[in-house]
Amino acid sequence: MLVPADRHRAAHSIVTVLNPYEPPADEAPLDPQGDEAESVVIKVAPLYLDGFDLVAGQLPGLIYLWIPAGLVGWLTSSFLFSLATVALVCGLIFLFTIRSLEISSAGLRFRRLFGHPRFLPWNRIVRITQATRQEVLIHGWTAPRFPPREVTTASTTKGHFRIEWNEGWLYFPPADPARFRQLVALHHGNEEPSGPATSALREPLK
Fold first, then answer.
1. What is the pLDDT of residue 69?
2. What are the b/e assignments for 159-168, b being 16+ CB within 10 Å?
3. What's the confidence (pLDDT) of residue 101?
4. How far apart are CA 45 and CA 109, in angstroms?
5. Which tens digits make up the pLDDT trace of 170-180?
6. What is the pLDDT of residue 198?
7. How far apart are CA 154 and CA 160, in angstroms?
8. Between the chain's N and C termini, which has fewer beta carbons within 10 Å?
9. For residues 157 and 143, what is the distance between their CA atoms, to the nearest angstrom?
10. What's the pLDDT score for residue 183?
């Protein structure tokens, strides 16, 4: 049987435990919330166009849109088939477009509907280097392959990084380059921030 003093202490302890407004102790670390503890999403750089992009950007449009549409229209003698070709190519590019990049301790996950790679573990990544605008234009936009090595919503040649793995490479323009460098150095430690990937371009292009 509890004496009045014991009853008071017991009631006080119950109130203390059930009080939802009591702040945690300073030395108690807060638990990370869900996937945020393991991965960080890096968005694509916002749309940016300058004189260089306005001129250079006509080349991929010519290669991937207008030449195929012109050939289809010439072979079929149909303007509707030409428009359908433009719509088809635009739809395919949209399906392969990289919208963001997820970085975690496991590797890089490219957020897009279709395309290869979708996920690259760190042990497959050879290096990540900053790319020049000319490199992005030549090897990212106008190289004769589909999908292109640079297929994002940025629509600019600025601020790209070349992500290389054993079978190839692609280009990604992070919205926060400093954060991107920090995360790559944390998980991979093989990012080369001091200049474009000129040494990589001396290797045979695949």
1. 87
2. bbbbbbbeee
3. 95
4. 17
5. 999 999 999 99
6. 36
7. 10
8. N
9. 14
10. 93
Token readout for 68 is: 């195929």
Q: What residues pair up with 163 in beta bridges, in sequence order?
A: 128, 170
- Residues 76-123 have pLDDT tens digits of 888 898 899 889 988 888 899 999 999 999 999 999 988 888 999 999
**Greatest extent of the chain over all pairs of C-alpha atoms, in Å:** 101
Residue type, 147: P
Q: Which residue has the tokens 């004769």?
A: 144
Amino acid at 20: P
Structure tokens at 141: 């936009």
Q: Are 114 and 151 in contact (CB under 8 A)?
A: no
Contacts of residue 205, defined as CB under 8 A and 6 or more positions apart, other chains included, come to 139
DSSP assigned state of 105: S
Every domain of the chain and the residues it spans: 40-201
State the DSSP string of 52-98. Answer: HHHHHTHHHHIIIIIHHHHHHHHHHT-HHHHHHHHHHHHHHHHHH-B
